[in-house]
Design the sequence.
């Protein structure tokens, strides 16, 4: 089946630093990837849609200059949290859209736990 | 995409069937019903989806009412590993569009 990985699985950083999270589709090509954020005891909130080779589309209220998304290849999208602050501490999840074998659906990564001190 | 309504939480005895309801009264004709679950601190896992006919796979069964305004996810023999938050989402299938998650149902399977 389609597998999506994320790296790192967890990260702790100091306030003011930048953190990069990778999302990879391991056995399929993904023209579109999505980034979600989940705070404790809350549901997943879509942050942005990332299309290979073009600029990401951000949901309302998500700062594009703070959450930099790069989708440079069909198997990799990165989310960089710039100048992270404690309020950015969250569970970040990506999903990748698969268009193989006539099945056009999304598969989710395992998530990355970010803690900003 | 249509909005869904689910109970906040449910309990189920281990080995019994877990029936998770979902209301989607504003569903459009071309929207499917999807079910995902999220075990604590993991990414969402696809369970099943359907349009109007009942569906069954190795994980669960999906029962959709004739008017499509509600559905029920059935886990036939719940185990402790089925404890998770279950999300019911309706959207147009095969578009690869983003999912908008509701609050889901927190299912606790009790030994």
Sequence:
């Amino acid at each position: 089946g389609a597998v999506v990985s994320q790296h790192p699985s967890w990260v702790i950083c100091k306030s003011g630093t930048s953190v990069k999270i990778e999302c990879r589709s391991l056995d399929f090509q993904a023209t579109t990837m999505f980034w979600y954020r989940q705070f404790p005891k809350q549901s997943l909130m879509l942050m942005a849609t990332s299309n290979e080779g073009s600029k990401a589309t951000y949901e309302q209220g998500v700062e594009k200059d703070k959450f930099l998304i790069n989708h440079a290849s069909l198997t990799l999208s990165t989310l960089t949290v710039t100048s992270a602050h404690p309020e950015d501490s969250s569970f970040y999840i990506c999903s990748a859209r698969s268009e193989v074998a006539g099945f056009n659906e999304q598969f989710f990564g395992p998530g990355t736990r970010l803690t900003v001190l | 995409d249509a909005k869904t309504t689910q109970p906040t939480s449910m309990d189920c005895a281990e080995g019994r069937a877990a029936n998770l309801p979902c209301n989607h009264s504003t569903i459009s004709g071309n929207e499917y019903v999807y079910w995902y679950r999220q075990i604590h601190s993991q990414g969402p896992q696809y369970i099943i989806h359907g349009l109007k006919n009942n569906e069954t796979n190795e994980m669960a069964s999906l029962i959709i009412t004739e008017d499509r305004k509600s559905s029920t996810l059935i886990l036939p023999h719940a185990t402790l590993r089925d404890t998770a938050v279950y999300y019911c989402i309706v959207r147009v299938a095969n578009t690869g569009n983003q999912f908008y998650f509701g609050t889901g149902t927190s299912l606790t399977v009790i030994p």
Summary: The first strand of chain A starts at residue 4 and ends at 7. Chain A touches chain B through 25 residues (CB under 8 Å). Residues 36 and 46 of chain A are 4 Å apart (CA to CA).
